[in-house]
Design a protein that fits this description.
By secondary structure, the protein is mainly alpha-helical. It has one domain. It has 15 helices and no strands. Helix 2 packs antiparallel against helix 10 and helix 13 packs across helix 14. The radius of gyration is 20 Å and the shape is globular. The two termini are 15 Å apart.
């Protein structure tokens, strides 16, 4: 496989990392059983919860500065997102009835499709993605008209709202009700815009300095977020909710995105070939192409293996052995499954591979 010169490898790297973090984040929740494992799981969870925001930044980087014909854009997104989503909705509905023995009631169908059912809670991401995609042509026109200032204006709004959210300004029920549309919209929109802005902006600092700025932002963000959820969780062992609007999560996501953009193997040695020319680069691209399908398939596979399969009881075993082992197994199976599906015409739509 030869990597297309048009392909932006660092975005494939971010997308590949994002799906790995998503799988780890869902998996780690199954290993929190006492205070010691809860601390470890909380630390891992602080890192992994940026997986979905990273997906949003990649989409923003690729879509927001282009000129879109609305009809063509929606048709393309329909094939890319909605058709695979519909395929996996059917898979989850059937699996829930045949394997988990859920009653095929109207509430069951509604819950699975819209992600409110425990079996399909990961579907919220797709609905959020679809919601923002509907606005991309309009938002893209705004950003192209106003340039960097337009992006900076929307990013400033996102940061202000994120800080207010983090310090608890919206904890009052009435305020939360009044600002409900912001919480349903701006966290996702903000990541799209930040991804586009970082991707398309040439900063004054050197690549090396930008890389270390990104790493510093990432480390500060993960430390701040771990401290926050540590104190929040002292009353129990459940992991904190996924606060994508938390300013620490924003810092983690943006910092890591910047670091990947400016990472260069030449920082290590001039003798090392660019990653795009290495076998590893080709593997990353192939894995990235399968990431959408892996997102859909990993969750139901994980639930099945831990409830009915050979991973039953692994959540109560040694965290340091069985967590990474189960992660490698699940990611490998899903990657192989999606790759095979992409080669079978009748199943290719569910693979999400272009």
């Amino acid at each position: 496989m030869k990597i297309s010169p048009k392909r932006i490898l660092y975005l494939d790297e971010v997308r590949s990392l994002a799906i790995i973090l998503v799988v780890l984040g869902h998996l780690i929740r199954l290993f929190s059983k006492d205070f010691f494992t809860w601390q470890i799981c909380s630390g891992v969870f602080s890192l992994t919860r940026i997986g979905v925001p990273l997906f949003f930044t990649v989409s923003g980087a690729l879509l927001l500065t282009r000129k879109h014909d609305i009809k063509q854009f929606l048709e393309k997104r329909f094939k890319r997102v909605v058709l695979p989503f519909a395929f996996w909705i059917v898979v989850y509905l059937i699996a829930g009835i045949l394997i988990w023995h859920y009653e095929p009631t109207l509430d069951y169908f509604y819950g699975v499709i819209f992600g409110s059912h425990e079996l399909s809670s990961l579907f919220w991401f797709i609905w959020s993605l679809i919601g923002v995609y509907l606005l991309i042509p309009v938002l893209s026109s705004f950003i192209r008209e106003y340039g960097p200032f337009g992006s900076e204006y929307l990013i400033l709004i996102t940061i202000i709202l994120s800080i207010l959210y983090t310090i608890g300004f919206f904890d009052v029920q009435q305020i939360k009700y009044d600002f409900r549309i912001i919480f349903n919209f701006f966290p996702v929109l903000g990541y799209f815009i930040i991804g586009s802005y970082v991707h398309n902006t040439k900063f004054k600092f050197s690549n090396r300095r930008m890389f270390f700025i990104g790493i510093l932002m990432f480390l500060v963000g993960i430390l701040g977020h771990f401290i926050k959820i540590y104190y929040k969780g002292l009353g129990g062992f459940s992991l904190a909710p996924i606060d994508f609007f938390d300013i620490c999560v924003v810092m983690e996501t943006v910092g890591l995105f910047i670091a990947f953009k400016y990472a260069d193997v030449k920082m290590i040695s001039d003798k090392i070939k660019p990653l795009k020319e290495q076998t590893l680069g080709k593997i990353i691209v192939q894995f990235s192409l399968c990431s959408f399908g892996i997102y859909f398939s990993h969750y139901i596979l994980m639930l099945y293996l831990f409830k009915f399969g050979f991973m039953q009881g692994w959540g109560n075993k040694n965290l340091f052995i069985y967590f990474p082992l189960s992660a490698v197994i699940i990611i490998s199976i899903c990657w192989a499954l999606i790759y095979i599906m992409s080669k079978i015409p009748i199943l290719k739509v569910g693979s999400g591979v272009k």
